[in-house]
Design brief:
single chain, 470 residues, alpha/beta, Rossmann fold, 2 domains, 7-stranded parallel β-sheet, 6-stranded parallel β-sheet, globular
């Protein structure tokens, strides 16, 4: 039997949680299906070369690569073109809010099954008011498990419309490198202590938290401080206090090299918690309170049950003092031993199995069958309802963004886009982050697909398009 194609789409969240979960599912699917990852997160640049899985970057609305009012249709057409090109039977979307363009793709192609991978631990943000409507427009809702689920009292916690799985993580004991091998892979000294710091930069308060965290590491003899992005503010000024040896690394997936670190300092996002703790890295969590993810609740659970330390994200002095405690080797040993008691994170394989079963249920009925005719009538009725509901969701989204505008990442050059199917991480990252529009194509795509993508780009950008391969 030919392997089915399953598209795993993700939004561009605050962190890497959406993309990391999709990657874990894709790896579990790899031997039995053809997974394709499409994402609005720039981190997708690292995936093709590492995973050997076809990927496509789709620019999010915040990139302003096209007029805002055209983006939903652009997203729909991109997804439909990819479905036609690959023969996909299932489209899975991992994100806080299923974009109207995602739902419109399902409405335009009744043969595709639409799945929403909806993380729990929501803060009480306005998006909660349309949870029921959005869930009802899906063929299936999956909730990836969370180790802190017992503390979840948010909008999704009492809902019964999702299939719950175990937590999802890219960390797997059998794939993780040993301490020395991981350090060699990162270019670290084998004999000096090392700490991984994964905190964001950007707004002034976030930058202050980064500096406060780093100050807590001062005085740790021989320490190597490892960051995944340059610790600088928007003006290029360093956020690093004097007296620290800083090294910025680029490695995907970090889950594979976590044994290199004696300790970690991280935001309390889904991805960080479900990688660092299963890897038994003694960690201080400094929550990011932006977005819908209730990181403070997750941090409290980790702290209360002795799996990690929680620093009050609103108190810079406490951040510094809590992180300074990591310099105590007995405390680090205590935290590491406690994390060894956590259950395995097998949610990626569980979700992969659910999606495969959904593919089987997507097989077409015999057109002569009475059941088929009944289903067709019901489907036309449902599609009409979904179309009306989707228009309502889109209007609500526009109203919400009017009062809660997204941060504009950059101003895009009003020039014809560059087309390319590069899988080189460095090159692909540069193209994605560029101020020039970039239309990414899955590797090995057909001339028909390239032509359709050209038509979609022309309509979205309103400029003449010439395909230039990069």
């Amino acid at each position: 039997m030919e392997k089915p194609t399953i598209i795993l789409a993700t939004s561009n969240g605050v962190g890497m949680g959406h993309l990391a979960r999709a990657s874990a599912v894709a790896l579990a699917l790899k031997d039995v299906a053809h997974p394709i990852i499409v994402s609005m997160a720039s981190g997708i640049a690292d995936l093709p070369s590492f995973m050997g899985i076809r990927c496509e970057y789709i620019p999010g609305r915040d990139r302003l690569w096209m007029p805002r009012e055209k983006w939903d249709k652009y997203l729909r057409d991109r997804l439909l073109a990819l479905i036609d090109e690959t023969g996909a039977k299932v489209l899975s979307f991992d994100g806080v809010v299923p974009y109207p363009g995602v739902i419109a793709a399902r409405n335009s192609n009744s043969a595709i099954k639409l799945v929403w991978v909806r993380r729990g631990l929501w803060q009480k943000k306005p998006q909660r008011f349309i949870l029921g409507l959005q869930s009802g427009m899906m063929d299936l809702v999956i909730e990836p498990g969370d180790i802190a689920r017992a503390y979840d009292h948010g909008p999704t916690s009492k809902r019964t419309d999702a299939v719950l799985t175990s937590p999802v993580s890219l960390f797997r004991k059998e794939d993780a490198l040993s301490r020395d091998d991981a350090r060699r892979a990162l270019g670290l000294d084998l004999n000096r202590p090392s700490v991984l710091v994964q905190l964001g930069t950007g707004d002034s308060d976030v930058n202050q938290k980064m500096t406060a965290a780093l100050e807590g590491l001062i005085g740790w003899p021989g320490l190597q401080v490892i960051l995944t992005k340059k610790p600088i503010d928007k003006d290029g000024k360093s956020l690093v206090p004097a007296g620290l040896d800083i090294k910025v690394v680029r490695y995907f997936p970090l889950a594979q090299v976590l044994h290199a670190f004696d300790a970690g300092i991280c935001a309390t996002g889904y991805n960080g918690v479900h990688e660092l703790l299963p890897a038994q890295v003694p960690t201080v969590f400094v929550s990011n309170i932006r977005g819908t993810d209730d990181q403070e609740t997750r941090a409290r659970w980790c702290h209360d049950f002795g799996y990690a330390l929680r620093a009050d994200q609103s108190d810079l002095n406490e951040i510094t003092a809590t992180i300074k405690r990591l310099q105590d080797p007995s405390l680090r040993e205590q935290l590491s031993k406690r994390c060894a008691e956590l259950p395995d994170t097998t949610g990626g394989a569980e979700i992969a199995d659910i999606l495969l079963k959904l593919v089987a249920s997507a097989q077409p009925d015999d057109p002569k069958n009475i059941r088929f005719k009944r289903l067709m009538i019901q489907d036309h009725f449902n599609r009409g309802l979904r179309h009306v509901a989707n228009l309502g969701i889109r209007r609500l989204a526009l109203v919400y963004r009017r009062f809660n505008p997204q941060i504009i990442l950059q101003i895009t050059k009003q020039e014809p886009p560059i087309f390319g199917d590069s899988t080189d991480p460095q090159k692909l990252s540069e193209l994605i982050r560029s101020t020039t529009r970039f239309e990414h194509l899955i590797s090995g795509s057909s001339p028909t697909y390239r032509k359709r993508r050209e038509e979609i780009a022309y309509e979205a950008y309103g400029v003449s398009v010439e395909i230039t391969k990069r």
